[in-house]
UniProtKB/TrEMBL annotation:
It comes from Sphaerimonospora thailandensis. Keywords: Cytoplasm, GTP-binding, Hydrolase, Metal-binding, Nucleotide-binding, Ribosome biogenesis, RNA-binding, rRNA-binding, Zinc. Belongs to the TRAFAC class YlqF/YawG GTPase family. RsgA subfamily. Its main location: cytoplasm. InterPro entries: P-loop_NTPase (IPR027417), Ribosome_biogen_GTPase_RsgA (IPR004881), RsgA_GTPase_dom (IPR010914). It is found in: Cytoplasm. Its EC number is 3.6.1.-. Its cofactor is Zn(2+). It is an enzyme of class 3 (hydrolase). One of its GO terms (biological process) is ribosomal small subunit biogenesis. Residues 138-302 form the EngC GTPase domain. GO terms for molecular function: GTP binding; GTPase activity; metal ion binding; rRNA binding. The gene is rsgA_1. This is Small ribosomal subunit biogenesis GTPase RsgA. Zn(2+) binds at residues 327, 332, 334, 340.
Length: 400
C-alpha cells in the first residue's frame, strides 16, 4: 500500500480543493465494500471505513453512500482509535455527475435529489464512450436473413439508448465505432447514420489493433475536449474519468488495454469466422491510464444499459422534441392528429421512421423501468418492515 499518486492524474482539480474540509486529506474511491472503501490518496492506497456522518447520511438516503469515482475527505485517526487503518472516510465531496439507478432525479441546476431509494453506480464520470462494433455477423434483432454486402448493421437504437444514459448521468457521450478494420467499405455511411442518431455527439472510428484513433480517444480523457459546463473552473488539463459502454464483444476491454498500453484486462482471441468476441471478465474497477485519466469499469456500470434514462431520452431525441413543439396540439400523439409537425417531418423524409419508432420504444421503456423500479423498491420496503416487526415481536416475547 505504498505507491503514491499525483492526484491530478486522477482528475483532482482546483475547484475540488475549495470543497475539502479543513484538516482532511483528499482521496478517490476505487472500490466499495460494505461500510468501507479502497481509496487512492496522494500518499497511496488506503482501506478506510465510513465515518459516523457518512453512515448516518447513507441511512437516510443511499445516494449519499460513497461509490466508485467519488472524491472523498479522509480524517486522520490516531492509532489507538482504530487499529488497521490510518484514516476514516469523513465526507463525500459534491459530485459533478452520477450514474444513478432508480429513485433519483436531477434538479434544474444539475444536482441530484434522491427520494431515499436510489443507488449511485459511479460518480464524477466526465466522458462516456459508447462503443459500437462496425460489423457483426448476426443481423439486428427482428431482421431475418443475410445482410446485403456493404450495408452496415450497427444497432442505432442501442447507440441512442446508451447516449441517452450518458446525458442522463451528466457526462458527455462520445460514440466510438470499434473494429473499423473489419468494415472499411461503407464506413462513411455508418458514421453518417450514427451521427444522425446522436446529434451533437462526436463519433470516431477507433481501431485497437492498429492503434488508429486511439489518440483521439485519449485526447477526450486528457482535457483537450473537456468542455462540459460542470468542468468550468477546472484546470483545462485535468485528467478525465471515463466509462466505456457497449455490447459484449464490442472491443471495450481491448480498447482499455490499448489506452493503458498494457493488458490490464484479459481479452480473448477473436473468433475468426464471425468477428464476435467471447465474454471477458473485469479484473479491476478503476484503471488509471499512464498519460492521466482513468476508466471506471464495475459490474454495475456494465449493466447500466438497463436503468432509468427518461431525461436522457428527451435529450438524444431533441430533434423530435423540437418538432413536437410545432404540433398544433400540445398533447399531440404524433399519429393521425391534424397539424402534426412530427408526421410532416416523417412524410418529407426529414425524420426517419426508424428514429421515431426508436423514440417511442425508449420512452415506453423508460416509463416502464421507472414503474418497475418503484414496484421493486416498494416490495423490498414491505419485506424489510415485516422482518423488523417480526424481530420486535420476538424481542417483546423474550422480555422478562
Ligand atoms: N478486428 C478487430 N478486432 C478487435 C478490435 N478490437 C477488439 N477486437 C477483438 O474483439 C474481441 C472482443 O473484444 P473485447 O475487448 O473482449 O470486447 P468487450 O467489449 O470487452 O467484451 P465483453 O468483455 O464481453 O463486454 C476480441 O477478440 C478482440 O481481439 C479491432 O479494432 N479490430
Ligand atoms: Zn405531433
Amino acid at each position: 500500500m505504498s505507491s503514491s499518486f499525483d492526484l491530478s492524474l486522477l482528475g483532482w482539480h482546483d475547484r475540488l480543493e475549495a470543497l475539502l474540509p479543513d484538516g482532511t486529506v483528499p482521496a478517490r474511491v476505487a472500490r466499495v465494500h460494505r461500510g468501507a472503501a479502497e481509496v487512492l490518496s496522494a500518499g497511496g492506497e488506503h482501506h478506510v471505513r465510513f465515518g459516523a456522518r457518512v453512515r448516518r447520511a447513507a441511512a437516510d438516503d443511499p445516494v449519499a453512500l460513497p461509490c466508485v469515482g467519488d472524491w472523498v475527505a479522509l480524517s486522520p485517526l490516531d492509532a489507538a482509535a482504530y487499529e488497521g487503518g490510518r484514516y476514516e472516510l469523513a465526507a463525500v465531496l459534491p459530485r459533478t455527475t452520477a450514474f444513478v439507478r432508480g429513485g433519483v432525479s436531477r434538479d434544474s441546476r444539475g444536482g441530484l435529489s434522491g427520494d431515499g431509494q436510489g443507488q449511485v453506480l459511479a460518480a464524477n464520470v466526465d466522458v462516456v464512450f459508447v462503443a459500437e462494433p462496425s460489423m457483426r455477423s448476426m443481423p439486428p434483432e427482428g431482421v431475418r436473413g443475410v445482410l446485403p454486402p456493404g450495408k452496415h448493421s450497427a444497432d442505432l437504437g442501442r447507440i441512442e439508448r446508451l447516449v441517452a444514459l450518458a446525458w442522463e448521468s451528466g457526462a458527455r457521450p462520445v460514440v466510438l465505432i470499434t473494429k473499423p478494420d473489419l468494415f472499411d467499405l461503407g464506413l462513411d455511411d455508418l458514421l453518417a447514420d450514427v451521427a444522425a442518431a446522436a446529434p451533437g455527439v462526436d463519433v470516431h472510428p477507433v481501431c485497437s489493433l492498429t492503434g488508429e484513433g486511439v489518440d483521439l480517444v485519449r485526447a477526450h480523457l486528457n482535457g483537450a475536449h473537456l468542455t462540459g459546463a460542470h468542468l468550468t473552473g477546472a484546470r483545462s488539463a485535468a485528467a478525465g474519468t471515463a466509462v466505456v459502454l457497449g455490447p459484449s464483444g464490442a472491443g471495450k476491454s481491448t480498447l482499455v488495454n490499448a489506452l493503458a498500453g498494457v493488458d490490464v484486462m484479459e481479452t480473448q482471441q477473436v473468433r475468426a469466422a464471425d468477428g464476435r468476441g467471447r465474454h471477458t471478465t473485469v479484473h479491476r474497477e478503476m484503471i488509471i491510464l499512464p498519460g492521466g485519466g482513468l476508466i471506471i469499469d464495475t459490474p454495475g456500470i456494465r449493466r447500466v444499459g438497463l436503468y432509468d434514462m427518461s431525461d436522457g431520452v428527451d435529450r438524444v431525441f431533441s430533434d423530435i422534441e423540437e418538432l413536437a413543439e410545432g404540433c398544433r396540439f400540445s398533447d399531440c400523439g404524433h399519429t393521425a392528429e391534424p397539424g402534426c409537425a412530427v408526421q410532416e417531418a416523417l412524410e418529407s423524409g426529414e425524420l426517419p421512421e426508424r428514429r421515431l419508432e426508436s423514440w417511442r420504444r425508449l420512452r415506453r421503456e423508460a416509463r416502464w423501468m421507472a414503474t418497475r423500479t418503484d414496484a421493486r423498491l416498494r416490495s423490498e420496503e414491505t419485506r424489510k418492515w415485516k422482518i423488523i416487526h417480526k424481530e420486535m415481536r420476538r424481542s417483546g416475547r423474550n422480555r422478562p
